[in-house]
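Homework-ish question, so no full write-ups if that breaks the rules, but can someone show me the predicted structure for this set?
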Amino acid sequence: DGGITQSPKYLFRKEGQNVTLSCEQNLNHDAMYWYRQDPGQGLRLIYYSQIVNDFQKGDIAEGYSVSREKKESFPLTVTSAQKNPTAFYLCASSIGSRSHTFGSGTRLTVV
Amino acid sequence: GENVEQHPSTLSVQEGDSAVIKCTYSDSASNYFPWYKQELGKGPQLIIDIRSNVGEKKDQRIAVTLNKTAKHFSLHITETQPEDSAVYFCAARYSGGGADGLTFGKGTHLIIQP
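A: Not a homework solution, just the prediction itself:
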């Protein structure tokens, strides 16, 4: 079945560490996105990529980095520069002007 | 940039009654308005969407209306059932160019009382 797979489901990070969240899709979608979700805040766009080897900053890109070396993969790195990384992270993809298909999310907690 | 306001933040209705969630947007260039349902611990799932050349769209118990002049759109759920309990998000996007991200409202927690 086609879909988006995010891993891990739960991730714990120590202060000062970088961590990478995985996102893989087999929908043959061109565009991929990363959103951050905090309680009562809705979803906020971190980065998006319309095509391989190209990506753009969203509304809250500071402290995050991404890469898009393959069409199927769009990993997100949460760097030590992100001062408040505890959140639920959602990856999505889309094709053309159609709506997003979301993954099941990764919950990141700083310990 | 786009700004989307969503109300109410929490909505409690009796099973079988109707529920209405309202959103307003700021960018008149936005032309695509999806609605998502999110269950606890899961990613959002698209339930219905509407484009700016249409005023209303219906899918069984769910309908969405769009007023471009007033820049607001609403989700209507009729004959609510316990499985409708979830958080609902509206979103807006200009889709005339590249595949930019969606701007989301802050969500409505819908509670269906038995």
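Now go work out the reasoning yourself. Hint: The first strand of chain A starts at residue 4 and ends at 7.
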